[in-house]
Amino acid sequence: MKITTAEFVKSAVWPNQFPPATMPEIAFVGRSNVGKSSLINALVGRKSLAKTSNTPGRTQLINFFTVNSSLFFVDLPGYGFAKVPRSVKKDWGDMIETYLRERRNLALVVFILDVRRDPSADDLSLRDWLDHYRIPYAAILTKADKLSNQQALGRKKLIEKAMGKGASGNTILFSAKTRKGSEELWQFIERHLSGLENR
Q1: Between the chain's N and C termini, which has fewer beta carbons within 10 Å?
Q2: Structure confidence at residue 57 as a pLDDT band (50, 70, 90)
Q3: Whether the Cβ atoms of residue 129 and residue 160 lie closer than 8 Å to each other
Q4: Does the pTM of the predicted model rise above 0.70?
Q5: How many structural domains does the chain have?
C-alpha cells in the first residue's frame, strides 16, 4: 500500500476518550518490548510516528494514528512486564480488554510475537480471548533478522503449532530492520478489509 499520510491522533485510556469510530481500526498488541512501535513505523515508512523505547512497559496508553485518512492504527499497551506493579498490570489488562471487546470498528488485531521466544502464558491467554470473541488476527513474528532464514522458518512452525488453528495461514515473519514482511502484512490487511466491505 502506498502511504500518503500517517498522523498521530490522540492517546486514550477509556472508551469515552477514544476518537469517533468513523474508520476501520487495526490494533497492534503484544508483550512489552516485542517491537510494536517499530512494526507500526516500518509499515507506514516513518522513523518515529509511534514512539519506540528500549524500556519495557513504556507504552501505558492506547495510541491512535490515522493512515491515509482511511483507517486507524491503534497501538495498545504491552503486557507481561514483570517490574510493573500488580495494580498497574490489572489496569492495563482492563484497558486492553475493554478496547478489544467494545470497539465496534475494530477490524483486525495484529498479534505480535518475538520469533525467538515461545508464546508466553499471557500470549496464550490473549489468543484464547480473541478466539472466544471471534476477533480475527494476524500473528506477526518480529525480529526475524536475528535468525537465519532456516532458523526463522523453523521457529515459525513451532510458534504456529503452539498458537493453534487460529494462527494457521496468517503467520508472517517480520523485521523492522530490513522491513521483511511489511508488504506481506499490508496485503493481508488489505485483503481482510476488502472482505469486510464485500459482506
Answers
A1: C
A2: very low
A3: no
A4: yes
A5: 1
